[in-house]
Each structure stands twice: as structure tokens, then as C-alpha cells.
Amino acid sequence: MNREEYFDTKSINGRAQKIVAEGVADALQYCCDKEPEFEQAIEQSGKTFAECLNEIVKDVGPSKPGLSDFETYNRAVKFYFSTAKIWYTMHIDLSGDNGAAKPITMTENKKDTLSISLDDLLDF
Q: In Å, what is the CA distance from 51 to each residue of 42, 58, 60, 67, 112?
């Protein structure tokens, strides 16, 4: 599949579609990189990227003015691969890097990282 051509965002019409197009294209290409079966599903679907965007934003309007990124990406993946299950993980570095020198006693390790599943926070 020629990804550059397939995920071309320059020819997308519609205000809502244009808003989500670039982020969705990046996310779907990332999925293709990680899972060749997903790229194959896109190729074999016979569906266009514009149709995917139309499906994502189909109920956006005055009564539903927007979508979360999570909902947007869920809709995009399910458009091509209806049986896919999507998990989101967030890693928070509690020590951060604020530019200050770290104390001598501090060591770099995973203890300073909090990992939570967004699936536990969101109701899908």
C-alpha cells in the first residue's frame, strides 16, 4: 500500500474531517507499522481514508460538538478492523525533568514512573 497516497490529508473535505485527518493518519500509520495484519485489513477493505474520516465524525454537530482523541482513534481502527480491541496506556514520570540537577542520592529507575491504564478511567 502506498501510505503517502492513501493517507493524503490535503484532499480531505469537510471541516470536522480536516480537524482530525492528520492525527488519525498518523495513528493509523503507527498501527500499520506495529501490526502488518492491520495494514492488510486497510488494503483489503476497499475503503478510502476519506470514508474513514466521514464515519469518525458522522454524529458530530450541535448536539455533539466534538470527540475525544480516544473516541476518534477507536472509531478509526474499528472502521477498518471491526473486531479490534484498543487499549490505552499512559506513563507518568513523577520525577520529571525540570532542568535542575538531580540529587546525588536519586537513581534512575522505574520506581519513579507511575503506569495507569486509561481503560480503567474511561468507559468504552
A: 12, 10, 15, 17, 43
Whole-angstrom distance, CA of residue 112 vs CA of residue 89? 16
- Condensed to tens digits (0 to 9), the pLDDT of residues 39-49 reads 999 999 999 99
Residues 77, 75: Cα–Cα separation, whole Å: 6
Output the CA–CA distances (angstroms, integers) from residue 63 to 2, 18, 51, 60, in the order listed. 37, 20, 22, 7
Task: Kindly give, in sequence order, each residue whose CB lies less than 8 Å from that of residue 50, ignoring residues fewer than 6 positions away.
Answer: 11, 12, 13, 17
pTM value is 0.71
Residue 48 has a CB neighbour count (10 Å cut-off) of 10
